[in-house]
């Protein structure tokens, strides 16, 4: 039998009203009384009815996080950091997987489920710029990702173009000239793939290196298996290249595996660069040089921004665009010095 | 301005009572009426107040999943599979990270937050057998993991002893005799580490191979970095071994990286075996031979079992122990044939 408010009041030797005040965290309760009630709650394993409580306070103490899928390591590490930051603020996280599908993303934005939470951190992948209006919802929302810009909501994201440009410049500075790309999305202008390819092209152009379609491999999703397939595709074309830029780490790791299966040495024959800064990239053979786009900062900033919006719905303020700093983590798959005679 | 029940009723041309019936999914509503109401809800972006709704129905449509941390790939892949299975049943998932800490696990079990959900899938790591009584809670709970057995709740888990024994037998059959272990927990009897080490010892004993403490490396947590440190520790000891059994895949991957850094060939000099069947293990160099302990089945079975308990709280029935089948995924790091002359 679950215990009741009455049981707690009796055990603590206080009125029901006092127990209720402690549960609802009202001010002006004597510390000794508060401690006695909390001890009684713990002893009885009493669980106050939060549903009733949230009806009164208008807050649920929960936020939602929507990501394409946790099986993509980037989103698993992002979710871990979001849950950690929320936990520090005493808030729980409801995690939704959308599969990166536009219809499911739109459905989620309209879903009555969101009433269970005080706000949403939304990593859009299927929706595009034309869907910006759908982000105007009657609840606090922080947007992640790079599919939609200038929407009427706070947006926390990475510097995709600059970071990808820096990664490409790094490869060029180490003496590479034929830099293949794995994970491109044909025709995409914004989105991670579109922006990172733009950064790549800007770096090539600045260095006077021609852009060559024949060393660009396209894959819609970004799992390790896609990177492996993308590299097999490049090898089948019979084109030459001395570096590969995987548009994320898992693509780069899949591609690096296939290169080595084919007897191609990394980095001697082909240097490999990733993007994400996953933990995994430190342990591959060779370890993966990558761009750390500031994911941890993004997660913590998204939580802080959302909680601030939840607290001060009255003074809404202008939507903000918050951009993370990035840095290149130099490892074995792409050393920074030119390799003479390689 | 958020729209109201009145707005929906007006747009759909029906009574408020009818809108309410559609939202609450009552039977005997004409399909055409239902469609009209749903269209009006979509057009207006109306979100019914679920908090009020759950007070009436006594259900929230949400379940909680507690795992040690999503940054451990095993739990990320588990959470992805749980969320997918729950989504198919129209249920959302609130994910909690406990850090594998006993106090935080116990606190979670008593937490009022759980009132926000209809039940809990609980992957315990810090709690032990003596804590079994704490699992007796006034809500549906399915236990995962191998820290507690014979508790008064449904338990879905893997066959740790048998699977680890099979992995060790596999290495012995391929001609290895000095099988080092990375990730052992000193003195642990149950728990993943304790049970897997028991399976390892059983296989050695059956083959007449002596157990040797000097090739057992201990690490409390199971990240890639722990596997790397464990292997450095073994190499520093100056002991000889011809195989390594990482008690999970990330340990094995960290260890494999350090072996190769030290110029030791995998599998020619030392074979490496993991445990978990992570996606990542297919792409390492060399690819990792591992035990797939049936994680996907565990996730789906846990969700189905919990939802069944939520539906029929009246007919509780005996707690069940549900065990997944396992299989060995043979890859490059430990081929099944003996390597002559290696």
Automatic annotation (TrEMBL), chains A, B:
Quote the Gene3D superfamilies the UniProt record gives.
3.40.50.2300, lambda repressor-like DNA-binding domains
One MF annotation (Gene Ontology) recorded for this entry:
DNA-binding transcription factor activity
Q: Which InterPro entries match?
A: HTH_LacI (IPR000843), LacI/GalR-like_sensor (IPR046335), Lambda_DNA-bd_dom_sf (IPR010982), Peripla_BP_I (IPR028082)
Q: Does the keyword DNA-binding apply?
A: yes
Entry keyword set? DNA-binding, Transcription, Transcription regulation
A Pfam family matched in the record: Peripla_BP_3
Using the record's annotation, list all stretches that form the HTH lacI-type domain: 3-57
Name the PANTHER family for this protein. HTH-TYPE TRANSCRIPTIONAL REGULATOR GALS (PTHR30146:SF109), LACI-RELATED TRANSCRIPTIONAL REPRESSOR (PTHR30146)
The protein in question is named LacI family transcriptional regulator
């Amino acid at each position: 039998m679950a215990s009741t408010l009455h049981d707690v009041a009796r055990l603590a030797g206080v009125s029901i009203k006092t127990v209720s005040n402690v549960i609802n965290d009202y001010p002006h309760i004597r510390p000794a009384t508060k401690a006695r009630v909390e001890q009684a709650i713990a002893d009885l394993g009493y669980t106050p009815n939060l549903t009733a409580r949230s009806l009164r306070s208008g807050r649920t103490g929960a936020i939602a996080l929507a990501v394409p899928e946790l099986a993509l390591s980037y989103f698993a590490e992002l979710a871990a950091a979001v849950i950690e930051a929320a936990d520090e603020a005493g808030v729980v996280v409801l995690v939704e997987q959308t599969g990166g599908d536009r219809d499911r993303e739109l459905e989620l934005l309209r879903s009555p489920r969101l009433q269970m939470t005080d706000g949403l951190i939304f990593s859009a992948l299927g929706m595009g710029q034309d869907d910006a209006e759908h982000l105007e919802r009657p609840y606090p929302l922080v947007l992640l990702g790079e599919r939609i810009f200038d929407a009427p909501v706070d947006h926390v994201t990475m510097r995709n173009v600059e970071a990808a440009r820096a990664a490409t410049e790094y490869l060029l500075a180490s003496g590479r000239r034929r830099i293949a790309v794995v994970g491109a999305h044909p025709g995409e202008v914004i989105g991670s793939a579109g922006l990172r390819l733009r950064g790549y092209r800007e770096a090539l152009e600045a260095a006077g290196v021609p852009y060559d379609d024949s060393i660009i491999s396209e894959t819609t999703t970004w799992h390790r298996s896609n990177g492996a397939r993308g590299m097999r595709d490049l090898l089948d074309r019979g084109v030459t290249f001395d570096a590969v830029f995987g548009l994320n780490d898992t693509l780069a790791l899949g591609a690096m595996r296939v290169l080595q299966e084919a007897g191609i040495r990394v980095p001697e024959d082909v240097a490999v660069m990733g993007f994400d800064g996953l933990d995994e990239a430190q342990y591959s053979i060779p370890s993966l040089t990558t761009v750390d786009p500031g994911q941890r900062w993004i997660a913590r900033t998204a939580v802080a921004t959302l909680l601030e919006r939840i607290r001060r719905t009255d003074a809404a303020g202008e939507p903000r665009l918050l951009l993370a700093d990035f840095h290149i983590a130099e490892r074995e798959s792409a050393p920074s010095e030119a390799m003479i005679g390689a």
